[in-house]
């Protein structure tokens, strides 16, 4: 599959960028625990790995299989993050959406014996450079060929896919890792899709996790939405590493679960790997008449006793979008303060 993008430079010269995609798949196991995706260096070609799904294969045992990805961050340094913790009985597969990484990328089965199949797309972005030669008019006969200075063909102004990517790399947004947690049916996935300006008319429960990248106020917010079902919650801790911001979503209309959601939040705040991490609590589903106000929820969860980090509770409706941007403005403001 390939996509052609036509661009026109300021000089009127037509340029052409091509994005080709190829099916990618590799298998990790105790015998072959890692795979490195790499490509030859070429100034006019960029290679990306777009991860889509990670699943257990035939013969998988009743054990946890932790898959880790190592790739370059925006500072050009290698960083490793867990992307899946699979179990044949409760979480045999996760969908990553469109998780794009620039080569080289190493996939590693950090624990478990597999087999684990990682699939997605190998994206190849190429740009064809053309030359523009300005010719003099035929009626300029008073200038002889010997008097004409030698002129090198002018390179067209790059405006294709690769030039855009290079521009982004030269002045990248600061990447922020946000963990989006909460009980099942709290509206986390709807909130995530609202942030990414995606269709929210059809939402299914998250059985693994979703990842979305959202651009906001000079930040690239990488938001990890982890499923909230009781059987998945023990796996939350596998995603705590390197978290810059915790967003906790509460169903304001489900008063019967306030005690349960409060206990889960308290346990998160006690986690060593989340120590000092700012937390935004979205009091979601405020569009419902039965929703408790944010002030009531804050009092019921004893949020005023939090002393080891900055926090905020924000009324919102992921369905209508009301209050969501206010919450994300708080996130960006306090990430800026934290990074200084």
TrEMBL record:
Its main location: cytoplasm. GO terms for molecular function: GTP binding; GTPase activity; metal ion binding. InterPro entries: ARL2/3, Nucleoplasmin_core_dom, Nucleoplasmin_core_dom_sf, P-loop_NTPase, Small_GTP-bd, Small_GTPase_ARF/SAR. Residues 125-155 are annotated as: Disordered. The keyword Nucleotide-binding applies. Residues 24-124 form the Nucleoplasmin core domain. Mg(2+) binds at residues 189, 206. One of its GO terms (biological process) is protein transport. Residues 127-148 have a biased composition (Acidic residues). Keywords: Golgi apparatus, GTP-binding, Lipoprotein, Magnesium, Metal-binding, Myristate, Nucleotide-binding, Protein transport, Transport. It is a peripheral membrane protein. One of its GO terms (cellular component) is Golgi membrane. It is found in: Cytoplasm, Cytoskeleton, Microtubule organizing center, Centrosome; Golgi apparatus membrane. PROSITE patterns: ARF. It comes from the Eukaryota. Belongs to the small GTPase superfamily. Arf family. NCBIfam families: small_GTP. This is ADP-ribosylation factor-like protein 3.
